[in-house]
Amino acid sequence: MSGDHLLSIRNLKVRFRVYEGVAAAVDGVDFFVEKGETLGLVGESGCGKSVTAMSILRLLASPPAELEGEIEFQGKNLLELPQDELRKIRGGAISMIFQEPMTSLNPLLTIGEQIAEAIVLHQGLSRQEAWDRAVEMLARVQIPSPEARAKDYPHKLSGGMRQRAMIAMALSCNPNLLLADEPTTALDVTIQAQIMDLMERLREEIGASIILITHNLGLIAEMARTVVVMYAGKVVEEAPVRELFSEPLHPYTQGLLGSVPVIGRKFKMEKKRLQEIPGIVPSIFEMPRGCRFHPRCHRMMDICRLEEPPMVEMGQRRRVLCWLWA
C-alpha cells in the first residue's frame, strides 16, 4: 500500500440478518483515500454510501450487521481493533457529520457541552478551554450569538443550526479524516458555501482528508478530487472528477449526470426533457443476476443478464464495472 493512503477499504461486505432474510447492503467495496484528498461518494438512496461510511467507524450494531473485509486506517485494521482503541479514534482522528443531526445530538446536553466533551476527550484541554473552543467553533460555522447558542439544548435550534452544530463538533478536534454524510442537506445555498469553504480550509490547514457523501453533483464537481460511484452495494465507477464529468464510462454514471439540469444549457422550443434512469433500485434482498444495473440499462447486452461484470482498470484511478469495457 502506498504511504500516501490514509484509508484503504478492501472487499468490504456488510450484511444484515433480519426477519425478511439476509440483506447485502454493501458487497465487495474497494477504494482508498489519500492524505489531504477529498473523495466524493455518490449514488442513489439505498446504494450503500452511508452504510460504508458507518462501517469505517463500526457504528453498525452487530447483530444484525455482519462486516467482512479490511478497513485500514493509519496502518491499523479498524474492523479488528478492540472497542477501547476504537473509541480513541472516533471523534478524534476520524469524525463524522451525520445526515440527521436531531437523532445524532444528545437531547439532555447543551450544544456547548457536547462539543466540549469531545475536545476534552481527544485534545486533553481543561473544561474551560474546551468550552471556549466550542464557542469558537460555533462562531466559525456562522451560528449567530455563539456564546448563547452554546448554552441551548438541541431542540431549541432550527434544523439548519443543528446541522451546523454537528459540523462544528466534527471539526473541533482537527480530524485526519472527515466523513461528511450529506453535510449541507438542511442548509440554504449561502450557508452551504460557507460550510464547504470551512471544510476546504480544514483540509488545507491540517492536511485532513474528506469523504463527501452527497446527492449534490455540483458539490462533488467543486470539492472532490476523485469520485466513487456506487450502485446497489457495489462500486460501478471510479475516476478523477474532471474525467468523470467530461467522459463518464458506466451507463449508470451517464444517467446520473444526464438527469442534472445545467445552467446555460440550450433547450429547443419543443421543451427537451432531462434524461432519466428508468425503473428503480433493486431490493437488497433480491439482486438481479449478472450486472445489477442491467434491468435499467439502455445499453444492456445478453451477457449482462447472465454474468457479473469484471472491474476494468482504465488508467490512474480510473476503473469501471461494466461489460462494455471488458
Outline of the structure:
The protein is of the alpha/beta class and 326 residues long. It is built from twelve helices and twelve strands.
Number of helices: 12
Task: Going across the biggest sheet, name each strand in turn.
Answer: 6-7-8-3-9-10-12-11
Instruction: Sketch the topology as an H/E string, one letter per element.
Output: EEEHEEHEHHHHHEHEHEEHHHEE
Report the helical percentage: 25-40%
Please tally the β strands and state the result: 12
* Mass-distribution shape: globular
Q: Roughly what is the average pLDDT, rounded to an integer?
A: 89
Report the portion of residues in β strands.
Answer: 15-25%
* Alpha carbon gyration radius: 21 Å
Poorly predicted segments = none
Task: State the end-to-end distance.
Answer: 26 Å
Q: Classify the secondary structure makeup into a structural class.
A: alpha/beta
Largest sheet: 8 strands, mixed
Description of the structure:
- The strands form 2 sheets. An 8-stranded mixed β-sheet has the order 6-7-8-3-9-10-12-11, with helices on both faces. A 4-stranded antiparallel β-sheet has the order 2-1-4-5, covered by helices on one side.
- The protein has 326 residues and is an alpha/beta fold.
- The chain has 12 helices and 12 strands.
- The chain is globular, with a radius of gyration of 21 Å.
- Helix 4 (111-123) packs across helix 5, helix 4 packs parallel to helix 7 (159-171) and helix 5 (127-140) crosses helix 7 (159-171).
Comma- or semicolon-separated keywords:
four-stranded antiparallel beta sheet; alpha/beta; 326 residues; 12 helices
